[in-house]
Amino acid sequence: MQLSPPAGGDGEQPGGWAGLDAVLRRAGAALDGPPELVALWMFVARAGRALRALSEPGLAAVGIDTSDFAILAALWFRGEPFRASPGALAHDVGLSQSGTARALQRLELRAAIRRHGHPADRRATIVELTDAGAALVHRQLAEISATFADCLDAPGGTPEGDTVDLRLVAAAFAAFADRVEHAVRAKTVPTLPEPATTPRH
């Protein structure tokens, strides 16, 4: 799939390359450092907020929040046998140990995961994705993918000939996320802040 950057609408900030150029000009005039870093921070944060807003309604409809789904997805992406320790999951999704424990309790109650003792260490616990949990992840990822694809295919102004390979974008975001998370963990803060949860009714 190719991503074409839309133009900003009335009353909106310029989109795509026009928005990037505006940020680079303003940041470059005011800062000593590379303006591209400011632009990257700004647009990554903006995309994160928008993507959360897109995914939360579907998750809320099945009674889970973003923290719960992040753990299920982390187990699913590990591949069979879909197992990990609570500590490894906390690292994968950027939750505190206590936040991970609460999410695991909720997921166990809905039979999306099961917990059992480690075969080599009686003090340790292993978390395993159940068939029901794997089915839930598959359904939600399909829904998120379809919703995201609809957004990318929406009409918008495009500088002639400009497209972006989504595989390259994903690879760049993955490397960026790894570096930022590593930098956060290298500081005195032990874990990333917990994401806001979707209220349950």
What's the CATH superfamily of the domain at 64-155, by name? Winged helix-like DNA-binding domain superfamily/Winged helix DNA-binding domain
Q: Kindly report the average pLDDT value.
A: 78
Task: Specify the oligomeric state.
Answer: single chain
What gap, in angstroms, lies between the N and C termini? 37 Å
Fold and architecture overview:
With 201 residues, the chain is mostly helical. Among the domains are: 14-61; 64-155, Winged helix-like DNA-binding domain superfamily/Winged helix DNA-binding domain (Arc Repressor Mutant, subunit A, Orthogonal Bundle). Helices cover 59% and strands 10% of the residues. It has seven helices and five strands; from the N terminus they run E-H-H-H-E-H-H-E-E-H-E-H. The strands form two sheets. The protein has a three-stranded antiparallel β-sheet with strand order 2-4-3. Strand 3 (113-118) and strand 4 (121-129) form a beta hairpin. It is globular, with a radius of gyration of 20 Å. The protein starts with a strand and ends in a 15-residue tail after the last helix.
Which key features would you list for this structure?
disordered N terminus, 201 residues, 5 strands, Arc Repressor Mutant, subunit A, two-stranded antiparallel ribbon, 7 helices, three-stranded antiparallel beta sheet
